[in-house]
């Protein structure tokens, strides 16, 4: 896949994930998958170059736009995305197992830093979302071609 087509497909993925995530379309049992987090985890797993990854991470943060100014949850999202990129560099496993680890750790960091009270009081919902994120991430890894 050429760089142009890869970036067009990535842009479509990030924009689509951001738009769908802003609706209640995929809510199951009170949990909604963090599609953008799963998409960024897939980019990290597929060893996207750092500059391209950071660009798509910032695009995703702008599209999600938790508030008109840079809020704490936006900072947490960016920290989580960067962490997912770098943690993948140390994982020796297949892209599927690495993807599961990256998504689980990313979801955990997002809730620990961004909403610890929600995590404490609504842990079954967070657990369901974590499983949902892993399923979405593995599906994306299965359909997304490896980087050139």
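-> sequence recovered:
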């Amino acid at each position: 896949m050429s760089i142009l087509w890869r970036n067009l497909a990535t842009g479509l993925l990030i924009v689509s994930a951001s738009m769908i995530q802003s609706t209640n379309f995929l809510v199951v049992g009170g949990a909604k998958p963090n599609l953008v987090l799963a998409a960024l985890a897939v980019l990290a797993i597929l060893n996207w170059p750092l500059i391209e990854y950071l660009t798509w991470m910032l695009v995703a943060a702008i599209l999600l736009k938790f508030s008109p100014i840079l809020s704490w949850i936006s900072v947490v999202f960016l920290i989580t995305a960067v962490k997912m990129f770098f943690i993948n560099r140390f994982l020796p496993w297949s892209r599927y197992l690495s993807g599961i680890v990256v998504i689980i750790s990313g979801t955990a960091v997002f809730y620990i830093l961004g909403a610890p009270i929600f995590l404490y009081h609504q842990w079954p919902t967070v657990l369901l979302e974590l499983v949902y994120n892993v399923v979405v991430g593995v599906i994306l890894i299965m359909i997304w071609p490896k980087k050139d």
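The helical segments are 3-21, 35-45, 50-64, 72-88, 95-114, 116-121, 123-143.
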